[in-house]
Design a protein that fits this description.
By secondary structure, the protein is an all-alpha fold. It is 66% helix and 0% strand. Helix 2 crosses helix 3. The chain starts with 11 loop residues before the first helix and ends with a helix.
Length: 165
C-alpha cells in the first residue's frame, strides 16, 4: 500500500503566488490613485491557519488569551503584508510565521503588565479583605448580606478613585 503524501496546512507556493497577485493589484491601485484593495479570502485563511497552528506550540498553548494572540498575529500580517518582497525571499510562510510569533510575544508581555497592574491595585486597596470567607455571615440573614454588599460597593468606589487619579 503506497504511503499517503502528507499535506501541509498552508501551501507555500500557492501562498507566494497569491501574494504576487496581491502586490500587482496594490501597485495598479496605487498608480490609479485608488485605495489599497482588500486582501483575498485565501490570504486571510492562510494567516488564520498559520496563527492557529502556531498557537498550539507548547510555549503558547496554555494561555487563556490565546484567541487574542491569534487576532494580534493576523492583524500584524495584514498590516505588514506589503513588506514581503518575493524578489528577496520565496518563503512567505516563514515570513508570516515570524510576524505572528512576535505578535504572540508582544501580547504575552501586555497581559503580564496588565496582571501586575491588577495585582498592585488589589494590594493597595485592601480588596482581598472583602473576599475572605466568614462562616458567621454565611448563615446570617439578609441584613448581613446587605452590609457585605455595602462594604463591597464602598471598596469598589474607593478603588475607582485610586485608579483614576
Amino acid at each position: 500500500m503506497p504511503k499517503k503524501k502528507s499535506e501541509h496546512y498552508v501551501n507555500n507556493k500557492e501562498l507566494l503566488e497569491a501574494l504576487i497577485v496581491y502586490r500587482t493589484k496594490v501597485a495598479a491601485a496605487k498608480e490609479a490613485g485608488l485605495p489599497k484593495p482588500r486582501i483575498t479570502n485565501y490570504l486571510g485563511e492562510c494567516f488564520l491557519k498559520i496563527a492557529t497552528h502556531l498557537s498550539y506550540k507548547p510555549n503558547f498553548v496554555n494561555y487563556m488569551f490565546r484567541d487574542d494572540m491569534i487576532s494580534d498575529g493576523i492583524e500584524n500580517c495584514v498590516q505588514y503584508i506589503h513588506n514581503f518582497n518575493p524578489e528577496k525571499s520565496q518563503n512567505p510562510f516563514a515570513y508570516f510565521t515570524q510576524i505572528i510569533h512576535y505578535a504572540f510575544l508582544r501580547r504575552i508581555q501586555k497581559e503580564k503588565k496588565q496582571l501586575e497592574i491588577k495585582t498592585k491595585i488589589i494590594e493597595r486597596t485592601g480588596f482581598d479583605e472583602v473576599m475572605t470567607v466568614d462562616d458567621g455571615l454565611l448563615s446570617g440573614n439578609s441584613s448581613d448580606y446587605n452590609s457585605m454588599k455595602d462594604n463591597i460597593s464602598y471598596r469598589n468606589n474607593r478603588w475607582r478613585t485610586i485608579v483614576y487619579k
